[in-house]
Design brief:
Length: 156
């Protein structure tokens, strides 16, 4: 039995704070070959996940908020914002399911944010994600910060 409690969330959040990417995950699935990938993901504010989609192979992705606030944005094929929501248990918005092939992005709006993520498997790093060419890569730190700032201003 795998138990998710405050001690686990606090430990994972602490690791996310110490990470250069400002996020940290903890896998619950046994291997990359599992057909159902399950994990905790801890995010800190200003963490940047390059917008991406899961098309080939086709995969759904679900985020369930356990603590904090997570901004979830979906885009059209040119990078225009189609829709967004903030997962916030205080406001009663608990989860979102991203359909196959939908461009999406997530970021934390509050320190200590942790989500339970579920995604179709298996996982293969080579083809798991198709990254949007209209958004900066995660390694382009300055461009990513500027993009994130512009996106947050657009939504607010």
């Amino acid at each position: 039995m795998k138990i998710i409690d405050f001690e686990l969330l606090n430990s994972l959040s602490l690791k996310a704070k110490g990470s250069t990417r400002l996020r940290k995950n903890l896998n619950f699935h046994n291997s990359d070959d599992d057909l159902l990938q399950r994990m905790l993901n801890a995010f800190e504010p200003y963490s940047y996940v390059q917008p991406h989609r899961h098309l080939k192979p086709a995969k759904r992705e679900v985020f369930l908020i356990l603590r904090g606030k997570l901004l979830v944005v979906v885009f059209d094929d040119t990078g225009g914002v189609k829709k967004y929501t903030v997962l916030d248990p205080i406001k009663g918005v608990f989860a979102v399911e991203i359909p196959v092939g939908q461009w999406h992005f997530v970021t934390s709006l509050e320190t200590g944010t942790v989500v339970y993520e579920i995604k179709d498997g298996p996982y293969c790093a080579v083809d798991d994600k198709e990254f949007a060419n209209w958004a900066p890569g995660e390694n382009d730190i300055e461009a990513a910060r500027l993009y994130l700032k512009q996106l947050l201003e657009l939504i607010n």
